[in-house]
């Protein structure tokens, strides 16, 4: 089962990457059985915390979103995550030849590498149930660092390249990931201006 890889990536990542490479799960199956499930954690937890728990900044009053606004923002976040993982997987496959990766008849390795590298970020979504901004920031920062390390660790194994090339390949992919992140932030501002911005309760 694809979800079993999530635990293995924290306990024995090298063995898990070897297993993932041999598995060659089709991108569609990987998306449905893994990404669609785990990517939903953060939006669902964010909806619950922002619409029902609320949060405070300093000694200010409790802040909550309306249920409709929280739902809209959660759905948009979920879609952005799905697009981001796909875009990163596409970039991995697109740059594969440049860094001497072993060619595959089915280009599933790039999507697999992106999906499984994002596992810590997916699971960090549980932290949103405790809506304290500094706590959430720390958890997601640690998750992002571990996800970046997972990608660097998995590149030589999954893509079949030398470890020396994995450093430059990984650096290029982190740059792409940052571009994707900035694009989603800009997209958020544009979407908010179209009437989907946060609506707070009185």
Automatic annotation (TrEMBL):
Pfam families in the record: Yip1
Residues annotated as transmembrane: 31-55, 75-96, 108-128, 134-155, 167-192
Keyword RNA-binding annotated: no
InterPro entries: Yip1_dom
Superkingdom: Bacteria
Primary localisation category: membrane
Subcellular location: Membrane
Gene Ontology cellular-component terms listed: membrane
UniProt entry tagged with the keyword Membrane: yes
Membrane topology: Multi-pass membrane protein
Keyword terms, alphabetized: Membrane, Transmembrane, Transmembrane helix
Domain Yip1 stretches: 7-183
Protein name, entry field: Yip1 domain-containing protein
Organism: Marinobacter lipolyticus SM19
